[in-house]
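Q: My labmate handed me this sequence with no annotations at all. I'd like to see what the chain might look like in three dimensions before we decide whether it's worth expressing. Could you predict it?
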Amino acid sequence: MLIKHFYDPDSSTLSYVVACQETGSCAIIDPVLDFDYASGTIHTGTADRLIAFVQQSNLTLELILETHVHADHITSAPYIRERLGGKIGIGASITKVQTTFAQIFNEDSDFARDGSQFDQIFADGDSFYLGNITCAAMHVPGHTPACMAYLLNDALFVGDTLFMPDAGTARCDFPGGNAHALFQSIQRLLTLPGDTRIFVCHDYQPNDRPLAYETTVAEQRTLNIHVGADTQESDFVRMREARDAELGMPALILPSLQLNMRAGLIPAAEETDRVFLKVPINRFGGVSLNKLPKDKPPAASKGEQKLS
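A: Here is what I predict for the chain of 308 residues:
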């Protein structure tokens, strides 16, 4: 089994190409689309590196696996699928995430909340093959309700459920997140054999150490600063909730959520043939809207009837 990592420094995201060397079948896990928020400009340089590697290695893309609806980067899954084929897969609880964020972003009925934007939906415990690689999907809610980990032979791709041991675990304060659920999900992962290799989705390089992306279940059990060394659930939840309260929002959370809940597909253009994303005010913290001054509607002109 071949595992090749790709690092996006702008979002500290790790994407992976995993390939069966006997058959040439491969999967891409958590691919990134470059997005300049200030100008609203999309670029594909990071995705093109993945595509070039697959093509130059004479691999056949079977799956593009999303571990969850990311809040810090936009997925390039549909762009890659258009060029290499393959199916985009995510966990079955995507419907919960779509329902939650459809309300936050005031989506109309044209936005499907049934996961149909994705090609393949994985339930907890689903098994599948990537060439001769045995694969299993594991539902690991906590960071989001729909987080999945994928076990490919002895390699576990955990998304944001776990970071490297010196970085701990992911936040749980986004809508639908839950620190209790995250702790329980992590304990489930840590029951796997100690030599199971873990590949993380992010590395923020604490204390300016070099990039790291691979660890093991045994190392996480012993060394993880948030859940290692027999940490109790109550202590973890207390720590996680206090820490989350001090964290700012990811820079790309608003465009990322709107596109990723659509499997990365761009929303339909408006009548001007332009595509727009929304900025909901104070839905992710901040002053209550009830405390802010509001624009008053103009007074009705003479002879004009009010409808409300």
